[in-house]
Amino acid sequence: xxxxxxxxxxxxxxxxxxxxxxxxxxxxxxxxxxxxxxxxxxxxxxxxxxxxxxxxxxxxxxxxxxxxxxxxxxxxxxxxxxxxxxxxxxxxxxxxxxxxxxxxxxxxxxxxxxxxxxxxxxxxxxxxxxxxxxxxxxxxxxxxxxxxxxxxxxxxxxxxxxxxxxxxxxxxxxxxxxxxxxxxxxxxxxxxxxxxxxxxxxxxxxxxxxxxxxxxxxxxxxxxxxxxxxxxxxxxxxxxxxxxxxxxxxxxxxxxxxxxxxxxxxxxxxxxxxxxxxxxxxxxxxxxxxxxxxxxxxxxxxxxxxxxxxxxxxxxxxxxxxxxxxxxxxxxxxxxxxxxxxxxxxxxxxxxxxxxxxxxxxxxxxxxxxxxxxxxxxxxxxxxxxxxxxxxxxxxxxxxxxxxxxxxxxxxxxxxxxxxxxxxxxxxxxxxxxxxxxxxxxxxxxxxxxxxxxxxxxxxxxxxxxxxxxxxxxxxxxxxxxxxxxxxxxxxxxxxxxxxxxxxxxxxxxxxxxxxxxxxxxxxxxxxxxxxxx
Length: 534
Ligand code: NOJ
Hints:
The chain has 534 residues and is of the alpha/beta class. It is 29% helix and 16% strand. It has 16 helices and 20 strands. The protein has an 8-stranded parallel sheet with strand order 11-10-9-5-2-1-13-12. It has a 5-stranded antiparallel sheet with strand order 14-15-16-20-18. Helix 5 packs across helix 6 (211-224) and helix 10 (324-336) packs parallel to helix 14 (438-451). It binds 1-deoxynojirimycin.
């Protein structure tokens, strides 16, 4: 079995992870300090969001030099040191590849915007006038006026993130060059930012086109062929049909993909992420079922609840107050029992929660642009704030709570974004002291994947499919069966397993209530979950 099929990835958002030089911003020195902690958790691969030189309009997803480390985060020497420290411990490091767009401060764009005749002009997408009324993901038109050339350039994200023109072979050559440069340094692969968008057709408002497959295959040949590295595509528009195309081994595109369908279910369809609706658990179950089946033996999946763009999962789908620990563990269990490579987002392993800040404490460019736009659209401030509390990206970006000291032990300087006020109760130090913590539960989830091949190989079948209170499924492989059974509610529920699980008993591998045997009929306590095998 390929090594990454049993691996677990930990995502680091360096700005908010740990500050080592007292400027209130997390950095590479901070990551170095915490390698042992991550080793103890048991993760295999670290994915670091962008640490390249950047004006930080979108916290590093706007790169102005792909070959330099942003001094806010440290130096190239520190980066190399981190890489070797990780390798010494048998861990791997993947970087973020942001090549759908650059920063407007990238020298290519600086040249492009000054001079129509520069070779860099065609590195970006230009029109004499806005030819569509397409909206950018961060509000406003995708077309932005450029005075020097009297033209409009195209940007899917902020206006400071102009999209690269992937149809220009020179652009692709430059991208492959930088990928190879980092791979030659010894990194273990990339997470590729919005990589399905490189196949866009701006003239037709098509955001993901067939071309993305063609370009990814070319990239594979130019950069990845023959190297034992790992790639994961952030393919926001991937479907159960396109995901296997991206990730089937023989197609030589990506190792795996992130699908987002399970995280778009609390939105009024077609209205964008801020218009909220309640989660229908059965719909969630169906989405997982379809994705698990679509990729089984056809491609490879990523399993994730959280990242730096998503709210905290325990606040989102669990109960972040009374049953915080129980529900965080249950959610971890549901995800880690599936087929795919799990991703743990920093702080998830201690059950960090969403925040409710006053508007002036939010930092994210997406949030700030949205507030302006929705006010113009006539939304009430109350509805806007509800959207931010539920979906704002800053929920995931508050500093990691290391201990109960000032600034949660993240820094000894006021952090760039406020600390979640619950840091005295929820922090790493507490979690490490408590044998029953979410941290140790995640540690066990990681170990289970290593020990039981069936988690990586088994097929997937929902149990109690029509019951929205229960999230349960069965994995089978060569006569072995593993079951994950969970109460998705904050109430006690009666569960008649006989009906669904014909073979009855099994050996409990993990339980968030220390249940040690499976009965044919069980009362499941609030958010109770268990994994058992036969
Ligand atoms: C997806 C990243 O995860 C997000 O943080 C960023 O804002 C956009 N891509 C644009 O790069």
